[in-house]
Amino acid sequence: MLKFSWNRCRRLVQAGMILIFLLPLTGMYQVLGTLSSSRILGLTLTDPLAFGEVLLASKTITMTFLISALWIAGLYLFLGKAFCSWICPIGFLIEGVDALKRKWPWLTRIQIHKNAIDEQNQYHWALPFFLVLSLVVGIPVFQTLSPIGIIYRAFLFGLGLEVLLILIIIVLELAGYRRGWCRMLCPIGAFYALSARWSPVKVRCDTDKCVQCFQCVKACDYTAASLKNIIEEGKVYAASSLCTRCGRCIDVCPARALQFSLKPEKSPEPESMAVAKNLKADIPAAGRISRRTALQGVGLMALAGLSYKPAKALAAAAPKVFRPPGAVGDEEFLAKCVRCGKCIEICPDKTLLSAHLDQGLNLGTPYFVPRQIPCSLCMECPDVCPSGALVPLDMREVKIGIAEIDQDRCYAYQDDVCRSCYNSCPLIDEAIIMEGFQYPVVDSEICTGCGICEYVCVMEYPAIQIKRMS
């Protein structure tokens, strides 16, 4: 009979989570989005860090967006740092690199740094850094650059130069900085490490069964030092906030002395003191700074963000693109968009595209090219936007741009018969009228900028084009 394995179960969950978010590729839209924000069977769920960044970047909040983040925050207050080993695709990728190194030992020759047990720490600097940076620049910075989002967008919407960040993470692993991204650079890991102190799910040790073989210590990637303390000091459970609840230590224990438990037994010292000591141990001495210094630094950065607002300059520097219907202004859109891709997936005509690195600060945001595929104004995309970057509107209220006719190139103005733009306009005889039954004329007050007229223009270089409002 096959022995139960937490590690095998975890692998299935990791692979299953990736496949679930790829369901839209098969035409199944019960699951939309990515781990930044998703809609599962009609329920919207948002990563608390993504919510925090958008809140700080946009300086606005909606109740539905807050509730969608509280669902996930509550889940991981219970499960601790389980996201990193059970859900995160980067964790799945890194463990795949480990498997390749075991299969092809020659890969270990690349290693230039050797990790020791006391180096398995979580650096928390990335969390305040990305939050304050989002406040200062007015853009959810980590959501734009997140390798988690990049992986999902690559699967769903195609590869871009941004996948180089994934290669950098792999190189870190091969160079010997085991879990280098996860421990040193990832603000999500830092966030869940902080919230994990309240998790009731812990690894418990039956000290009567433990034979002190230290197999668990060798198997652990994050909290080996904490496990070692359990064995050497006879503690009942691992209080480390870095434990990802992967279950590998439980699987390798020959005496079955370790297990997950929801019933905390009395610790040799008060749990609050144990957690405090553990959190302090999680931060290397060389990397510690005083609380006053940290607060002063964060406060100065926050004041700088409130006094100087570069969001407008950054929005102006970003390439100008056509946004989905209902999009707010450029500056506000870049601040509120979570880069989750739900609007792109729900689009029935596949009009919307996901911006790649060549689009600069637009990276991960939705846009479309009228000449390739215009917007049919179905108005489904605003309904799935969690953050208010897209606002539900009536079709006649949409203002993506304004169509302009080059009369020197238009067939109709050269005394030929052509009504392509007029016949295809969804607001026929309103947005485009035929003057004297011959010449198409655009009413700029009514035109929505959907791009259908540009798409159907028979000229190789369209004689009618959509121009942005600003």
UniProtKB/TrEMBL annotation:
<dbReference type="GO" id="GO:0046872">
    <property type="term" value="F:metal ion binding"/>
</dbReference>
<dbReference type="GO" id="GO:0051539">
    <property type="term" value="F:4 iron, 4 sulfur cluster binding"/>
</dbReference>
<feature type="domain" description="4Fe-4S ferredoxin-type">
    <location>
        <begin position="438"/>
        <end position="469"/>
    </location>
</feature>
<keyword id="KW-0812">Transmembrane</keyword>
<dbReference type="Pfam" id="PF12838">
    <property type="entry name" value="Fer4_7"/>
</dbReference>
<keyword id="KW-0479">Metal-binding</keyword>
<dbReference type="InterPro" id="IPR017896">
    <property type="entry name" value="4Fe4S_Fe-S-bd"/>
</dbReference>
<dbReference type="Pfam" id="PF12800">
    <property type="entry name" value="Fer4_4"/>
</dbReference>
<feature type="transmembrane region" description="Helical">
    <location>
        <begin position="61"/>
        <end position="79"/>
    </location>
</feature>
<dbReference type="InterPro" id="IPR017900">
    <property type="entry name" value="4Fe4S_Fe_S_CS"/>
</dbReference>
<dbReference type="GO" id="GO:0005886">
    <property type="term" value="C:plasma membrane"/>
</dbReference>
<keyword id="KW-0411">Iron-sulfur</keyword>
<feature type="domain" description="4Fe-4S ferredoxin-type">
    <location>
        <begin position="325"/>
        <end position="358"/>
    </location>
</feature>
<dbReference type="Pfam" id="PF12798">
    <property type="entry name" value="Fer4_3"/>
</dbReference>
<dbReference type="InterPro" id="IPR051684">
    <property type="entry name" value="Electron_Trans/Redox"/>
</dbReference>
<feature type="transmembrane region" description="Helical">
    <location>
        <begin position="154"/>
        <end position="175"/>
    </location>
</feature>
<keyword id="KW-0408">Iron</keyword>
<protein>
    <recommendedName>
        <fullName>4Fe-4S ferredoxin-type domain-containing protein</fullName>
    </recommendedName>
</protein>
<feature type="transmembrane region" description="Helical">
    <location>
        <begin position="12"/>
        <end position="32"/>
    </location>
</feature>
<dbReference type="Pfam" id="PF12801">
    <property type="entry name" value="Fer4_5"/>
</dbReference>
<keyword id="KW-0472">Membrane</keyword>
<keyword id="KW-0249">Electron transport</keyword>
<keyword id="KW-0813">Transport</keyword>
<feature type="domain" description="4Fe-4S ferredoxin-type">
    <location>
        <begin position="364"/>
        <end position="395"/>
    </location>
</feature>
<feature type="domain" description="4Fe-4S ferredoxin-type">
    <location>
        <begin position="234"/>
        <end position="263"/>
    </location>
</feature>
<feature type="transmembrane region" description="Helical">
    <location>
        <begin position="123"/>
        <end position="142"/>
    </location>
</feature>
<keyword id="KW-1133">Transmembrane helix</keyword>
<keyword id="KW-0004">4Fe-4S</keyword>
<feature type="domain" description="4Fe-4S ferredoxin-type">
    <location>
        <begin position="201"/>
        <end position="230"/>
    </location>
</feature>
